[in-house]
Amino acid sequence: MGRLKDPDAIRRIAKKSLFEGLDGMCEGAIIIDRDAKVVWISDKYAARLGLASPASAVGKVVEDVIPNSLMREVVRTGEPMMLDIMQFGPDSFVVMRVPIKDERGRIIGAAGFMIFDSLKHLHPLVSKFQRLETQLADTQKTLAEERRVKYTFTNFMGSSPAAMETKRQARRAAQAETTVLLLGETGTGKEVLAQAIHAASPRAHGPFIGINVAAIPDTLLESEFFGAAASAYTGADKRGRDGKFVLANGGTLFLDEVGDMPMGVQAKLLRVLQEKEVEPLGSNRVAKVDVRVIAASSVDLRQMVSMGRFRSDLYYRLSVLPIELPPLRDRIGDLELLCDHILEDISRASGRPPRELTPTALAVLSAYSWPGNIRELRNVLEQVTMNSDNARLSAEEFSLVLPRLAPASRPGDRPTLRLADVVADAERHAIKSALAAAEGKKILAAELLGISRATLYQKLSALAPARGDRRH
Ligand SMILES: Nc1ncnc2c1ncn2[C@@H]1O[C@H](COP(=O)(O)OP(=O)(O)OP(=O)(O)O)[C@@H](O)[C@H]1O
């Protein structure tokens, strides 16, 4: 073995032969200068790219020769790209890009090698990559669908003066950019209207993100809204996550039951609305957000302000455009239309012909006070349709389901023996009575029942699951 006499010479030869070796082994090579202009391209590469001759490429900027080239990036950053898949028309090439530096370490250009002109050599890697790309595209599609609204103004049924006035105000709100505050009892259609406003606004192409403040434990609200930086949390949040504000960027954020927000989060929300930027939990970096907020409440926020449970500055900020949604009992003229519409919906979902109501059934429904409003109406219609085979639903069938009109049990009736049924019945009755006493205000109903709001929400969805009602 000979000794190294002239290390510089060996380095020069190694450099030269390495380049030539690589060029020989590869399917093609290209060299560009600091301005990303081609200074040399191998015959094979020129032929593979369909160029008339290698010389025709020299002096051109690299993107004119290879449209998707990232060689300029290598010259700019000085960072090599050791393995990349590049698309050239219908073909995929596996490429490597390295910077070229002079003796003083200054970047003077870059060399690119087409390692394979077909992906078959990288089959395991590429098929995994393609599978992941397909999965990602599917997930993005599902997410985009979820963020698209389901309701427009035509879904907000009603031609009573009260319903028409609400719709008129909401249509005007759709054109404005300001925050909207929807006020109305539970089940009056606040979410339907929020989606309709979004769909008719210039942000319709952006996402619609809904969040039910009352259904989320106080401790999680902040990260749910503003996100969490990596490592601020353990477990599922270890990698950090985007908050709803970031997810709603360019679109609309719907804050349902905004009155249930703890004071600390209220202060942060106010700051985000004023500054239009969010700071994820555990991070010291802020991100600009362009979000329109539509807030909703079934409790009287002004009363909460006077009780010191809601910040007055936030209230004023949110209530720039307040819209009242009438309770169903105040627009009972819409009942028939709503029933027809809901019965058609039920028939579509079940594949059975739509049912009708007898005039006495309609009278019974009109006499009821509907503390749960249209959501309760839908639940009652679903329950009765499920229990009945009649084409026309009768008043008797409804009186079995409606709480106030339930017949008292007669002596001789078979008692309900299953304890679970008895308990569930009692619970259902207590919740309905509390909601009625609290005029549909869940926060008050929960207080009356001596349970938390979150428990009330759980019980409501367990007792009367209303398909597709809650999308949060
Ligand atoms: N005007 C309407 N026309 C037709 N359906 C409606 C209308 N308003 C509400 N609904 C239906 O009633 C149900 C409850 O509506 P929504 O969730 O919008 O009420 P909400 O006021 O947001 O309730 P909560 O305060 O409990 O969140 C949904 O099934 C919705 O489709």
UniProtKB/TrEMBL annotation:
CDD domains: AAA
Keyword Lipid biosynthesis: no
GO BP terms in the entry: regulation of DNA-templated transcription
Domain Sigma-54 factor interaction: 156-386
Keywords, in A-Z order: ATP-binding, DNA-binding, Nucleotide-binding, Transcription, Transcription regulation
InterPro entries given in the database record: AAA+_ATPase, AAA_lid_NorR, Homeodomain-like_sf, HTH_Fis, P-loop_NTPase, PAS-like_dom_sf, Sigma_54_int, Sigma_54_int_dom_ATP-bd_1
Keyword ATP-binding: yes
Molecular-function annotations in GO: ATP binding; sequence-specific DNA binding
Gene3D superfamilies referenced in this protein's UniProt entry, alphabetically: 1.10.8.60, Homeodomain-like, P-loop containing nucleotide triphosphate hydrolases, PAS domain
Pfam families assigned to the protein according to its UniProt record, in alphabetical order: AAA_lid_14 (PF25601), HTH_8 (PF02954), Sigma54_activat (PF00158)
Protein name: Anaerobic nitric oxide reductase transcription regulator NorR
Provenance organism: Usitatibacter rugosus
